[in-house]
Here is the input.
Amino acid sequence: MKLERILPFARHLLEKAISHGSVAIDATVGNGHDTIFLAELVGDTGKVFGFDIQEAALTTCKEKLLAKNLQGRVELFHKGHEHANSCIPFAYHGKVAGAVFNLGYLPGGDKSIVTMPETTIRAVERIFDMMAPEGIIVLVIYHGHPEGKTEKDKLLQFLETVEQEKAHILRYEFMNQKNSPPFIIAMEKR
Ligand SMILES: C[S@@+](CC[C@H](N)C(=O)[O-])C[C@H]1O[C@@H](n2cnc3c(N)ncnc32)[C@H](O)[C@@H]1O
Here is the structure.
């Protein structure tokens, strides 16, 4: 048996929570890899909502969706994920099966545009409110860059205060790797 690495493990968690007909959120669309993955999981009867503050990221993602003919099941917002609750129609609130945050900067993009602790925490709170019972939020936390370390610290402080009656929160990470590798937090609504 091989231990699962970080990104495959994040996907494994999402696969368990999301199936055909589900509603899912990609909170950080970036180059669209997770959006495509979610769009395939929800099938043609499901729905994915995606957020990014960079137009270029959304354009890349749209091209990928079109190439795979998945555009009909995905709605992209050129907005911060902290606005998720006002962007996503009320009919979907309480029905979200899975959400993913891939934090940090856009690979191959402007490294000065990064996710920020306050907006990330606000988005986690708001998206958590929209989750279905047993819905899962997966956070992939990159803390190798200076802002990432601050974001990690603040996010962990916040997550430690979430009452255990509301959510199961678990962490999966390498313990013996150099250079601050990314790790995963998974939050399951109770
Ligand atoms: C690590 S990248 C995401 C990678 C992406 N999941 C992929 O498959 O390529 C992080 C993304 O978060 C975006 N971002 C930064 N702040 C944001 C915010 N407040 N709301 C939504 N997206 C944000 C950045 O523009 C960047 O594209």
